[in-house]
Amino acid sequence: MNLRQKIVLAIAGVMLVVSVMLALAVAADLGAERVRARQALSRAAARQIAATLATVPPAERAGFLGAHGWKFLDPDAVEALAVLDGSKVVVWASSPDPLPEGSVAGDTKGYDASRELPGDPAGGPWTVLVRSPPASISFSGGIAGALATLAAGTAILIVVAYGLLDRLVIRPVENLAAASRSIGANPEAAKVPELKRDDEVGELIRAYNRMVAEVADLRRNLEAKVKEATARFEKSQRGLMVAERLAATGRLAAGVAHEINNPLGGMMNAARTVRQRANLSPRDAEYLDLIVQGLDRIQHIVRSLLQFSRPVLSNVGPVSMAEAIGEAAAFCRHRIESEGANLRVEIPPDLPPVLGAKAELSQIVLNLLTNALDAVRDRPVREIKIGLRVAGGDSPLVEVAVSDTGCGMTEEQLRHAGELFYTTKGPDKGSGLGLAIVRHLVESHGGRLEIESRHGEGTRVTFRIPVAETNA
Asked: Strand, helix or coil at 452?
């Protein structure tokens, strides 16, 4: 049973009950009116009978009543008649119930009209008792018309009440139900036209539309969060691949480093010894220089690879990041200035110490400065800047940012930055290990590395290291 059927049944039931109650009320009112009319006729008849008997001497009244008493009965006014003498003895009664002749009248409740008349000299006044006939309700033309009018009014009330409920309640509720069924497929299309009403139904529609808007926002936010989670997953996956490559490289470096270093050192000593001879031809000297440079490059690569074979950091403890940066800047400042570049270091006062190894932290900054110098070498503006600040709230971090005005990287280059053996430099300048080593060392300190770059504008590399806990 739908809402319309329930409302129609409810209205019809209520109106039926009201109609029956009104009909009963009308009938009761009509009955009471008839009773009052009969009682008035009975009182008038009592007066008339008393006036007639007053003309009869008291001694003759019993005989007079015996001969003519039945004439006083009237189907519209007098159903029963009783006459009492001055001693309350029943002289004559048309009905023995409840006052038989000759009895002493103790209960006159069966009679509803009475009248006194003069008695004999020896007794008190006589009493005439009249009982009116019962009032019956006959459905005359007036009563039938009133009931028909009541029925017609009830039908009109049902139609009007249903029409108002249909317009004010049923239709808006049906619109809400239909719209709610489509909210899952398209929340934006599930809104209901708002009514210019200040009642509860208007507020319900406005609240529903607000809920639909919130559902649409939640769906959009959910889609954005899914995309964000997917991007984080892809980033984590790339980081995992890099970590696996670093781990593999570390194991490889640990296995071959010692095998390479010993013959490599002997080859370098031999090449330098031969290079010192005075009788070398220019071509031989040139070839020996190339050999020494190649061996130096191999030694540098092997030394870099060994960074990944260290399972833990050495000499870990509270470290002043300002001192680590100062040592790295001092080590390469001369080289930077000789290339015509400008290095600025901005260190705020009262910088808290970080938890780490000072040598590795200096190496992080040194590698970043070397990359920045290579990036600004051919640029008209050669600026390198190191900035420090404390970031984070409950878990503070020291943030170090190394920025330059160099050539920058494209989006494709930026996606691969930090991968093992990936470099944007020429084959004779870069090995693709610098940023990989930096990322490895930063993550070994429990930190994070971020790279921002725009092609032709410069690069900014930021890493954050947790602050060392101090006992208050």
From this structure: strand
